C-alpha cells in the first residue's frame, strides 16, 4: 500500500510512532501545519484519517485506525511496526549484554540494525517529525556504537575498522565512534592511523566548537602513546569517569504536612538501607498506586527521614509521566540536570543520551546517593536513570506496575493502598483539628469511608472543614453520601480526585477504557473476569487481559486470588463513581443498558445452571431456562465444577444484582436470581440474604404486574418463614402464593407451595392436614416431572408417618425417596432422603443401620459444605449412639452439633440437641443436669411454636423431677418416653 501526499504521510507517521496510544487531533494539526494551521485543519485531519482507512481497507486491513477521543489511535494488534521491532531487538541485545552474553547481544544488535532500510521517516516535514527523525537516527548511531564496543570486547577489531571509519567520516563530532575507531586501529596494528584519528578529531573540535576532546578520547590517546597494556581490556575499563567537582546535591522537596500512617511501608523501605552492598545491581524500590493514594508523599517523607544516610546527596526529578498538560520528561533531560547537580560542567555533558547515562553510572559507582524519581511512566523512561550498582538507592513512584523491573532490578515493590481506618481518622484530625471531631466520632469514621480513605480525598475534605468553621462534619458527610455530587465535592476547581483519575483513564488503551467504564455500571461489591466479558461482549480470555490492564493501572484491585480459584476484582467507590461518569459521557446511546442486560443475563444463566447441577434435574420447572450467553457454555464446566462454591463466591454479587435489578425495573432478573440462589441460602443458612432478596424481588414484581414473579417470591418468603419457625406467617405467605400459582396454571409452583403448607401443618401437629397437602403436592410434582422434589416429599411423608407412630408405613416411603433422589444425581437431595431413612431406622430400633445412615449423611453434607445438613446428621447420630449406651461418643457428637446450632442460630435444632444431651445426662445418672437441659429445650420449642416437641420435652422434664423415679434411666426407658417424638 502506498500513501499519497505529505499530509497523509505525516498523520500516519505520527500515529505509527505512538502505536497503541491516542494521538490528539491538536497534535496531528501541529505536526502537519507547525506554524499556521488553516481554519479547516481539524476537518482535513479527519479526511486524511478517512482516506488512510480506505487505503488500509483495500489492502485487507480494517482494524488498524481507531477513533478515540480526543484523537485517533493506531492499534498495533498483530501488525508489525519496524521502529518497535528495532527497539525490542535493541533492548533484548542490551539485556543479553548485561548478563554477559556478548555474542548473543551482537547478533541481536545486528538484527535490529538490519531493519533500517534508509533514513528515518523518509524526508519528514514539520518540526515534530523532524525532531522524531533526529531522535531515531541518534538511537541508531548509539546502537552501532554499542555493537562496536561489544565486538571490540570479542576481539573482532579488524572487521570494524572500515565500518567505523565510514561512521566517523559521516559523524565526525561523535567522540564515542572515534574512540572505538582508534582502539580498533591500534589493535589491528595501525598505531599511527589511530593517533592520526585522534588529531583529526581534536582539530575539528577546537576549530569548529572551541573545545578540547572529552576525557575518554584524551585518556585513550595517552594510553596509545604509551602502548599501555590496558589497551587489551574493554574500553569501559580503559576510560575512567571524568573528575567531578565536589558538589553534594540536596534536591528533595519539602516533607509532606501532616503525614500519617504507612508504618509497614516505611519499615519495608528502611530495609533497603540494610541490604548487602552489590556492586552490579542497583538498590531500587518502586511505589505504585492509583492517583491520590499518597505515593509521592510516602517517597518524599521517607527520603527526608533518611537523607543523612546518603552523604553524597539526594537527587529528585518529577518525570511527569501522568501530567495533563506536559509530555513525560525525557531521560536525557533528567540526566542533564542530574549531571550538572553532581558537578559536571555543561561542556563536559555528552549530547548523546546513552553517553549521558554511562557518565551518570560512572559518577555514582563510588557514591552513596539517594535518587527519588516521581511519576515514572514506564521502565523505558526509568532505565537510563538507574545507577549500574554501588551504594546508591533509587526510589521510584508510578501509577502503573513497572513489570520490566521484576527480577533483575527490583529490590522492593510496594503497592500502596488506601489508609487504614485509624490512619484516615488521624489524618483528618491533623488537618481540621481534633475539636471538629470530638463530639461526633462516628461522623469522622463515615467521612473517612466516604473518601475511600484516599489521602488526596481526605486532605481535600480536611482542608474544607478547616477553611469553613461553620461547616459541620455531619453536613459534609451527608453531602458526600449523595453519589451524584461526591466527586464534585472532592474535586475543587479542575483538580482534586477527578483530575487524578482522569489522567490515568486518558492513557488507557481504548478497549481497556471501555471495559473500565462498563464495569463501573455494575453495583456488585466484586466480580470475576467473566462479568467483564459480559459487559464488553467479548470472550473471557480477552476480558481477563483487559482487566489485568486495569489492575496494572491501579483502577481495579484483586480482592480474592486463592490458589486454584479464579481471581475476583473490585473497585474503590470513588473509582467506580468516576467509571460511571465516563460511561454516561463516553458510551453511545443505549450501550450502557445493553451492557447491563448482558451482565444480568450472564449471572442468571450461571445461577440457573448451578442450581440445575446441584439438584440433578431440569431447572427451572415449568418455564424455559435463561438463554446461554455465547461465551459462557464453554466456561461452565470450569466455573461450576462445584456449584455450591460458585454460589459462595458470588454470594455478595447475587444479592447486589437482585437489588440493582429490582431498583431499575428488571423484575424478571430479580426474582429469577433469587429463586436460583435459594438452595445456597438454605444450605449455608444465609437467611438474611434470602429475606432481603425475596422482599426486594417481590416489590419489583408487584410494581411490574409480574404475577409469576410475585407468586414465586410469596412462596419463597413462606419457605423462609418455615426455616425461621414462624409457621402462622409461613402459612399466610404460602396460601397467597398458592392462589396466584393456581390462577397462573403453574402446576410445579403450586406443588411447592402445597409442600410448604404440609410442613406448616406438621410442625403444628396436624398430621391429617399435612398428609392432605402432601398428596396434592406429590401429584403436582409428578405431573410436572419434578423428580427431585418428588423424592424430597416422599421422605417428608415418611417423617409424618413416624410422627403418627406408623414406623412400618414410613420405611417403604423412605426407601423409595432414597432411590428416587439417587436417580437425580443430586447430592443434596440424596442427603435429605438418607437422613429421613436414618430417622425411620432409628425409630424402628435398627440402631446399627441408623448410625450407618447418619454417617452417610455426614459424608454427603460435609462434602457439599452443607452446615445445616451436617448439624441435623450429628444430632441424629448422637441419638443413635446414646440409644446404644455409647454415652461418651454420643456426648462428643452432640456437642459438635450444639456448636453448629449456635453458628446457625437455629433455635428448633438447638432444642432438639439439648433434648438428646439431656438424655445422655439422664442415662449417666445426672438428673439435675438432665432437667436443666430439658427445661432449656422446652423453652426453645415454645419460642418457635413447635408444640409436639415442646410437649415431649415437658414429659422428660417431669420425669426428671419425679422424686419416686430411680436416679438413672436406661436408653430403653428414654426411648419409650420419646415414643411420640415429632421429628
Strand content: under 5%
Query: Count the strands?
Result: 11
N-to-C span: 83 Å
How are strands sequenced across the largest beta sheet?
A: 5-6-7-4-8
Q: Can you summarize the main beta sheet?
A: 5 strands, parallel
- The residue-averaged pLDDT reads 85
Instruction: Tell me the Rg in angstroms.
Output: 39 Å
Helix/strand/pairing category: mainly alpha
Shape: elongated
How many distinct helices?
46
Spans of 5+ residues with little confidence (pLDDT < 50)? 234-246
Portion in helices: 55-70%
Structure explained in plain terms:
A hairpin with a 2-residue loop joins strand 2 and strand 3. Residues 234-246 have low confidence and may be disordered. The chain is mainly α. Helix 17 (421-432) crosses helix 18, helix 31 packs antiparallel against helix 32 and helix 41 packs antiparallel against helix 42. The chain is elongated. A five-stranded parallel sheet has the order 5-6-7-4-8, sandwiched between helices. Strands 1-3-2 form a three-stranded antiparallel sheet. The longest helix has 27 residues, at 127-153.
Give descriptors for this structure.
46 helices; elongated; 5% strand; mainly alpha
SSE topology:
Blueprint: H1 6-17, E1 22-24, H2 25-32, H3 41-58, E2 65-68, E3 71-74, H4 82-98, H5 102-114, H6 127-153, H7 160-170, H8 175-187, H9 191-209, H10 215-225, H11 235-238, H12 263-270, E4 283-288, H13 295-306, E5 314-318, H14 331-341, H15 353-364, E6 370-374, H16 379-382, E7 393-398, E8 412-415, H17 421-432, H18 441-450, H19 455-467, H20 473-481, H21 486-489, H22 496-506, H23 510-519, E9 527-528, H24 529-536, H25 540-552, E10 557-560, E11 568-570, H26 573-586, H27 591-615, H28 633-639, H29 643-649, H30 651-663, H31 667-684, H32 687-703, H33 707-723, H34 727-744, H35 747-763, H36 767-784, H37 787-803, H38 807-824, H39 827-843, H40 847-864, H41 867-883, H42 887-904, H43 907-923, H44 927-944, H45 947-961, H46 971-977
